[in-house]
Design goal:
The chain has 21 helices and 28 strands. The chain is globular, with a radius of gyration of 28 Å. Strands 18-26-24-23-19-20-21-27-28 form a nine-stranded mixed beta sheet, sandwiched between helices. Strands 10, 11, 12, 13, 15, 16, 17 and 22 form an eight-stranded mixed beta sheet that branches. With about 700 residues, the chain is an alpha/beta fold. The chain starts with 9 loop residues before the first helix and ends in a 7-residue tail after the last helix. A hairpin with a 5-residue loop joins strand 15 (about 440-445) and strand 16. The chain folds into three domains: about 10-305, polyphosphate kinase like (2-Layer Sandwich); about 325-500, 2-Layer Sandwich (Endonuclease, Chain A), CATH 3.30.870; about 510-700, 2-Layer Sandwich (Endonuclease, Chain A), CATH 3.30.870.
Length: about 700
């Protein structure tokens, strides 16, 4: 047998990414309230991880070992144990950062968030008033019997107290402890309550601490012996078998109603809870040992995103005004501008208004005949969907593919699909067994000469104006006949389910994407074997597919210099002698979420660049419709090369992954200026646009350097 290549476990790799997010909360170069947001993001990420990935591991544990070992090369029990150890270690790191760094810095800025300590007497009165006037009517105290068939129910990711009680006056003289659980109404009332200012300080308190102060009112006739925070996380994956015929929309709606009642995947409890009480709750809630997760006094700290900043905009990032694109600004019609040349948009550095203009102009342009779009995650108040509704009402043919299996966005996508359908838009829903993850749009327009012309938008990120402000993505506007023509084939496949398609320009998952990427990798590998220059730069969110990892290992062995920029999961292990010593992995976590996928191949000096919606994961390559698209315009290539170069040189927010997936800081010599790729990218693009505007003022020039 040949050598088995090494891989890093997917779940453990993801935890190293989330730990990198946590590290940002401790970086004192980051404004205080942005660091608080990183704590919130870390907490939110971890909740979803338990709802989906840990739920999957727990499902595997239900199978027999013999059956598992035939299918997997890891023991789910071992991985589950390692996950729990990592999560507990990171939890205490989170607590340390919050208590020892964040809270003192808030106090230094005259913002006091009460945290375990006794509030001032004046504030106790305010808290009691707030409790009686706002909170009390929302509370639902439930007593838990020591036995019985009915299992107490806790809502997914909701906050509760577990309370140990004793009757003050027991008629039979016996001391009987009673356990109750109590909901914390943070959803309707908010997690943080503002109190009156004192001595120049602004005060806030967790809503649950107000409830703690008033337990005697909730349980008259009882003495509270102990009150502990608890939380249940439940399996959030929808169980939908869509490989067969049936009403998929109906099935999803039915499953959405059941999502809140999924199997437990994590039971968080305050780590000072007495063992006998924990044992009682474990038994009554029918929990397994692997469900148990010790924590602190406060759960659901993704709510820190809601913590008011009374000094705003101080203690926050300085806004970066959107960079204009003069070539689009100065054209009366965006279609005229696209007819002249391709245009690249780099979000959030460029305004997303150009994408909105693309659709808004199409909606009222009498020359536009047809609009086709794919939606994966739609904004809750989508301006693009509204533009499409306008287009349909103006008599244009509008076809929209809505992916109703986009996890945790199913309900919002269904709502928009129904609204668009009622406006006369032809809605297509999910393909059985596949998700459509491509971010593409095609507009058919009659030119002034009466000829039909296609205008395309292809992106690495969703058609979502909200996330476009915080996700770093690319979008290409083009009238290239080859690209637009092949995009028409993709839409024809979505509409008619035709499988026979050939592509020269686009790489489409399910058809030619993986094969073409393998060709491009092999070309660099063969060049290296001939002692020619060979280099690959790949930027993706996640790298998990072993076929592609093995090819990267083979290319490294041949001498290809490989730079990977991987934000999240990376199952490839870099820096192993004889296997991956020519591979370096960089991870960037900064104010914007790096979401773009970029593939650069040296190609003997005639570089090829593709942008894509697809990561190199099994789900993207084998279970989704994805589109990667080429960049032919040399001016655009210059921009992408510069952005990649800055990211690879990022010594401020970049980290190198070692063979154990530690996030290693990048050292920079005193002679070199530190590079922060997102800020330096913004400044470079801004300066480049200013140069273009100066040149265009004198003559029409296409800048290529």
């Amino acid at each position: 047998m040949g050598q088995v290549n090494p891989y890093f476990n997917r779940e453990l790799s993801w935890l190293t990414f989330n730990y990198r997010v946590l590290q940002e909360a401790e970086d004192k170069q980051v404004p205080l309230y942005e660091r608080i947001k990183f704590l919130a993001i870390y907490s939110s990420n971890l909740d979803e991880f338990f709802r989906v990935r840990v739920a999957s591991l727990q499902n595997l544990l239900k199978f027999s070992k013999a059956r598992i070992h035939k299918q997997l090369d890891f023991d789910p029990k071992d991985i589950m144990s390692a996950v729990q150890q990592d999560v507990i270690r990171q939890h205490y790191e989170f607590e340390r950062i919050f208590k020892e760094t964040i809270l003192p810095e808030l106090q230094a800025n005259h913002i006091i968030l009460y945290h375990e300590e006794e509030p001032a007497k004046a504030h106790l009165k305010e808290m009691t008033h707030f409790f009686k006037s706002k909170i009390l009517s929302y509370l639902q105290p439930i007593f838990i019997s020591g036995s019985g068939k009915n299992v107490p129910f806790m809502q997914n990711d909701a906050l509760y107290f577990a309370i140990s009680l004793r009757r003050k006056h027991n008629l039979d003289g016996k001391e009987e402890k009673i356990i109750a659980y109590l909901n914390i109404p943070s959803q309707p009332l908010g997690r943080f309550v503002k109190l009156s200012s004192m001595k120049g300080n602004k005060y806030f308190v967790f809503i649950e601490d107000i409830i703690r102060q008033n337990l005697a009112t909730i349980f008259p006739g009882y003495e509270a012996l102990g009150c502990y925070s608890i939380k249940m996380t439940r399996n959030g994956d929808l169980s939908i078998e869509d490989e067969y015929s049936g009403d998929l929309v109906r099935k999803i709606k039915e499953q959405l109603k059941k999502r809140h009642a999924g199997e437990p995947t994590r039971f968080q409890y305050e780590d000072i809870m007495p063992p006998e009480m924990l044992e009682f709750l474990t038994r009554r809630f029918q929990l397994e040992p692997e469900d148990m997760a010790p924590g602190g006094r406060y759960h659901n700290l993704d709510d820190l995103m809601q913590l008011p900043n009374p000094l705003s905009p101080k203690l926050e990032y300085t806004p970066l005004p959107a960079i204009s694109k003069s070539a689009l600004e100065e054209s009366e019609s965006i279609f005229e501008a696209i007819s002249r040349q391709d245009h690249i948009l780099h979000f959030p550095y460029h305004s997303y208004d150009y994408v909105l203009r693309f659709f808004n102009e199409a909606a009222i342009d009498p020359c536009v005949r047809e609009i086709k779009v794919t939606f994966y995650r739609i904004a809750s108040n989508s301006l693009i969907a509204n533009a499409l509704i306008t287009a349909a009402r103006n008599g244009k043919k509008v076809i929209v593919f809505v992916e109703v299996k986009a996890r945790f966005d199913e309900a919002n996508n269904l709502r928009w699909a129904e609204e668009m359908e009622s406006a006369g838009i032809h809605i297509m829903y999910s393909i059985p067994g596949l998700k459509v993850h491509a971010k593409i749009a095609l507009i058919q327009r009659t030119s002034s000469k009466g000829k039909l012309q296609n205008f395309a938008y292809l992106g690495t990120g969703n058609f979502n104006e909200r996330t476009a402000g915080i996700y770093a993505d690319h979008g290409l506007l083009t009238a290239h006949k080859g690209i637009a023509g092949e995009l028409q084939q993709v839409f024809n496949h979505l509409v008619n389910k035709k499988s026979a398609m050939r592509f020269r320009h686009l790489l489409v998952a399910q058809f030619n994407m993986q094969d073409r990427f393998l060709v491009l990798l092999n070309r660099e590998k063969n060049a290296a074997k001939k002692e020619k220059s060979a280099k690959i730069i790949i930027k993706i969110n996640n790298l998990e597919d072993r076929v592609m990892i093995d090819e990267l290992y083979e290319a490294s062995k041949a001498g290809v210099q490989i730079e990977l920029i991987v934000r999240g999961i990376c199952c490839l292990i870099p820096g192993i002698a004889g296997i991956s010593e020519n591979i370096r992995v960089t991870r960037i976590v900064d104010r914007f979420l790096e979401h773009a996928r970029v593939f650069w191949f040296y190609n003997n000096g005639k570089d090829e660049i593709y942008l894509s919606s697809a990561d190199w994961m099994k789900r993207n390559l084998y279970k989704r419709i994805e589109v990667a698209f080429p960049v032919y315009n040399e001016s655009i290539k210059v921009e992408l090369r510069q952005m990649l170069a800055l990211q690879l040189e990022d010594s401020v927010k970049g980290r190198h992954l070692d063979s154990k997936h530690n996030n290693l800081s990048i050292e920079v010599s005193k002679k070199n200026k530190p590079i922060q790729s997102q800020i330096d990218t913004y400044n470079w693009l801004k300066a480049r646009e200013e140069r273009i505007q100066e040149q265009v003022a004198g003559e029409d020039v296409i800048v290529t350097s």
